[in-house]
């Protein structure tokens, strides 16, 4: 049983691990069996992560963050999470190896994947002119001719952003109209550097070491042509990796994991989420890392309040047990006899004299006696215990003590019946009869 499990080892997961490890939470990171390190493992130069004035290679940056997490004591397992149980207080993660790990809390940081075109040349030229992130790579295309593939809001946003660097930005779209909002369309249409290529699908990305162009097919007449380009930005959507939490955590309309306001708290107590999996907007390494830090701090607060609650519960349980013991010993509380064991404990083994009221549910005078006995118990608790025995439910005890009518009261001392009182009484009359015991 661990304090926190982190699923995902991109900037969000590993930064959460650094913070959690430094808070002595001994995090365990499920890093993935093939994609450990996240999206930045697929990129070359990262020029916008703070602290690297000359830029840094994606894999090098991730190796550094991983080493930092290990240095503070995080445990990293290069395996996949294949199953999750998040409903109980303990969160359970099943790994690809079929091993199950458990913790008081969970940080879900599985990132998101940009949708691919799935055409020849795309994979081979990824990072060599094919990009999925204008904010990350736009700077490398100063004075170049590039294209954005897509027709939604983010495609328009990327195209407009890229006009800061490129001399010409083609927007390639398979239909004759855009999905983007009117305002984004208007902005793109007004931009002189943007040119739209309608009804066109990319069939291939061409180039050897770098992108040289794309092969386009007209979706109306099927004509194929080549367009010369220095870069292709694919903006056809993004898929948050949520398959593990479908039906378990609430999602947003964009398909990301829902979190409460600026926090990392998901719809399930003790489960937190960080990075691109909660972010339909920024999706940068630095924002993912910041989100991981916030998640670890949220976990710390959650665990502190969980510990406090468990402490309070344990204390109140212990307190209740002490009260019950005291009550049984002092005789202040009315004890209802239920079986032979409680008869032995509450009557025969009692340190105090015990006034046993034998009663029955069908007996009217018994009902009248009941509050009188309650008053006697309250007033003389330290000197006398009152035990009520329903004869219908305790026939053997009633027979053993020759109960032939109800209400009948007997005073027991040191395990033996000393006196009997038959019939209902007023409180004062009963107190008089019990005088010898109450002194
Ligand atoms: C090509 C490319 C270039 C980019 N360049 C830059 C850049 O220059 N600068 C920048 O700031 N941002 C860049 N980004 C964006 C940046 O990579 C992301 O914003 C960032 O990596 C998100 O971090 P994350 O930790 O949320 O998710 P990810 O980096 O996606 O990491 C998620 C991790 O979770 C793992 N995972 C998923 N499911 C499971 C599972 N079931 N079990 C175990 N592990 C699992 C994945 O394998 C992965 O390791 C780039 C993105 C791409 C695609």
What can you see in these coordinates?
There is one protein chain. The protein starts with a strand and ends with a helix. Strands 1, 2, 5, 6, 7, 8 and 19 form a seven-stranded mixed β-sheet that branches. The protein has a five-stranded parallel β-sheet with strand order 10-17-11-12-13. The chain has a five-stranded mixed β-sheet with strand order 20-22-21-23-24, with helices on both faces. It is 31% helix and 26% strand. It folds into three domains: 2-113 and 239-310, FAD/NAD(P)-binding domain (3-Layer(bba) Sandwich); 130-236, FAD/NAD(P)-binding domain (3-Layer(bba) Sandwich), CATH 3.50.50; 335-438, Glutaredoxin (3-Layer(aba) Sandwich), CATH 3.40.30.10. α1 crosses α6 (285-330). It is built from eleven helices and 24 strands. β15 (211-218) and β16 form a beta hairpin. The protein has helices spanning 11-22, 58-71, 134-137, 153-162, 182-190, 285-330, 340-348, 364-379, 395-400, 427-433, 435-438; strands at 2-7, 28-30, 45-46, 56-57, 75-77, 81-85, 91-95, 100-108, 112-114, 130-131, 145-149, 168-172, 194-197, 200-207, 211-218, 224-228, 231-234, 238-240, 271-273, 335-336, 354-359, 385-390, 408-413, 416-422. It is elongated and about 115 Å long. With 439 residues, it is of the alpha/beta class. The longest helix is centred in the last third of the chain and has 46 residues, at 285-330. The model has no long low-confidence stretch (mean pLDDT 92). Residues 7-13, 30, 32, 35-40, 42-43, 46, 48-49, 80-81, 109-111, 114, 132-133, 136, 241, 244, 275-277, 283-286, 288 line the site of flavin-adenine dinucleotide (FAD). InterPro entries: FAD/NAD-bd_sf, FAD/NAD-binding_dom, Ferredoxin-NADP_redctase_2, Pyr_nucl-diS_OxRdtase_2_AS, Thioredox_Rdtase, Thioredoxin, Thioredoxin-like_sf, Thioredoxin_CS. Homodimer. Keywords: Disulfide bond, FAD, Flavoprotein, Oxidoreductase, Redox-active center. This is Thioredoxin reductase. Pfam families: Pyr_redox_2, Thioredoxin.
């Amino acid at each position: 049983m661990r304090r926190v499990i982190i699923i995902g080892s991109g900037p969000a997961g590993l930064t959460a691990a650094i913070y959690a490890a430094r808070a002595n939470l001994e995090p365990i990171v499920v890093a993935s069996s093939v994609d450990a390190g996240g999206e930045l493992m697929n990129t070359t130069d990262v020029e916008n992560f703070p602290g690297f004035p000359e830029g840094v290679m994606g894999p090098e940056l991730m190796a550094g963050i991983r080493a930092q997490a290990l240095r503070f004591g995080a445990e990293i397992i290069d395996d996949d999470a294949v199953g999750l149980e998040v409903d109980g207080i303990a969160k359970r993660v099943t790994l690809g190896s079929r091993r199950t790990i458990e913790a008081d809390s969970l940080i879900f940081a599985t990132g998101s994947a940009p949708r691919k075109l799935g055409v020849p040349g795309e994979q081979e030229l990824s990072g060599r002119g094919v990009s999925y992130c204008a904010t990350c790579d736009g700077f490398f295309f100063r004075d170049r001719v590039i294209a954005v593939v897509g027709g939604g809001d983010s495609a328009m946003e990327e195209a407009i952003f890229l006009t800061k660097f490129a001399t010409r930005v083609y927007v390639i779209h398979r239909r004759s109209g855009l999905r983007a909002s009117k305002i984004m369309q208007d902005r793109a249409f007004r931009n002189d550097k943007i040119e739209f290529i309608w009804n066109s699908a990319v069939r291939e990305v061409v180039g050897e070491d770098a992108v040289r162009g794309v092969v386009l097919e007209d979706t109306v007449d099927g004509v194929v042509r080549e367009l010369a380009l220095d870069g292709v930005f694919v903006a056809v959507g993004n898929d948050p990796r949520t398959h593990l939490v479908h039906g378990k955590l609430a999602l947003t309309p964009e398909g990301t994991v829902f979190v409460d306001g600026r926090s990392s708290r998901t719809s399930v107590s003790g489960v937190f989420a960080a990075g691109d999996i909660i972010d339909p907007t920024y999706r940068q390494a630095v924002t993912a890392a910041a989100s991981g830090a916030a998640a670890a701090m949220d976990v710390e607060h959650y665990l502190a309040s969980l510990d406090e609650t468990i402490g309070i519960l344990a204390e109140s349980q212990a307190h209740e047990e002490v009260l019950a013991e005291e009550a049984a010993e002092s005789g202040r509380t009315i004890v209802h006899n239920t079986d032979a064991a409680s008869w032995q404990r509450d009557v025969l083994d009692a340190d105090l004299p015990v006034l046993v009221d034998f009663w029955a549910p069908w007996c009217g005078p018994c009902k009248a006696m009941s509050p009188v006995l309650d008053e006697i118990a309250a007033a003389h608790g330290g000197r006398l215990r009152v035990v009520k025995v329903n004869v219908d439910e305790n026939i053997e005890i009633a027979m053993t003590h020759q109960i032939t009518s109800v209400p009948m009261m007997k005073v027991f001392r040191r395990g033996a019946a000393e006196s009997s009182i038959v019939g209902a009484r007023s409180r004062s009359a009963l107190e008089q009869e019990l005088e010898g015991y109450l002194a």
